[in-house]
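Tokens help. One example:
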Amino acid sequence: MSTGEEYVLAYQTYSLSRAEVIIAMLQAYGIDAQLQDRHFNNTNGHIAFATGGYKIIVPQSGLRDAQELLKPFQDEGDDTGPGSV
């Protein structure tokens, strides 16, 4: 994340394993996806719903491509919970 480009929220979930799979997929397509709140949620899991769970951020320039790749995940009715993007 040293390009100076702004990173924006592309996806959020309450499942760490789901977040890691999605990040791996986005990175395989050349999108510099990053996971926010990993350590906080791992140590404070009891309040993960209040904080929105694990957040996947991508460069603003890659958001449109990321959203297209993430459509199947959003249509599954997964564990994103309240306030999912």
Summary: DSSP finds four helices and three strands in the chain. Residues 35 and 56 are 5 Å apart (CA to CA).
